[in-house]
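Researcher: We plan to redesign the surface later, but first we want a full-length starting point. Tokens attached.
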């Protein structure tokens, strides 16, 4: 069977089985959250834009927010045959893409996204095994469900596997 590369757009999430790969391009302040069940060879990827749905007026798109996206991703993984007790996580993104005068907390969206994702992983009891976050550069990620490897590509900062 040929492996497919499944694109996961902004504020979206997908679950797939090996040998497929999940890919998210252009992660700036957004965070790519990869969940993995090694035994079931099952993976999920959410492209999270904002830290919390509680502060938003429009919460129709639950994949947009760290809290609701993780709830959805865990549910989808379990529906597809995953076991939450085996899930591990890798995350990438959360860059500070622009500098603002005063640099108030509200502008540190990348950092806040990373914190929110980490808090929500803890809430679900999912171990974070690797991350590539921060900096001031964008990332494209490719999650290999066969191996659990997360390839992180950057412009000007090379690429690495976590």
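Model: Full-length starting sequence:
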């Amino acid at each position: 069977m040929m492996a497919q590369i499944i694109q996961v757009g902004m504020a979206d999430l997908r679950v797939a089985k090996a040998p497929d790969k999940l890919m998210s391009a252009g992660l700036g302040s957004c965070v790519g959250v990869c969940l993995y069940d090694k035994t079931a060879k099952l993976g999920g990827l959410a492209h999270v834009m904002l830290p919390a749905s509680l502060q938003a007026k429009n919460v129709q798109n639950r994949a947009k927010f760290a809290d609701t996206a993780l709830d959805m991703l865990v549910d989808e993984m379990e529906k597809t045959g995953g076991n939450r007790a085996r899930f591990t996580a890798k995350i990438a993104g959360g860059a500070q893409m622009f500098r603002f005068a005063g640099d108030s907390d509200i502008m540190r969206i990348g950092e806040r996204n990373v914190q929110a994702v980490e808090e929500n992983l803890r809430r679900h009891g999912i171990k974070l095994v690797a991350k590539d976050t921060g900096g001031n550069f964008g990332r494209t990620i490719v999650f290999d469900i066969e191996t659990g490897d997360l390839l992180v590509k950057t412009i000007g900062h090379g690429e690495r596997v976590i």
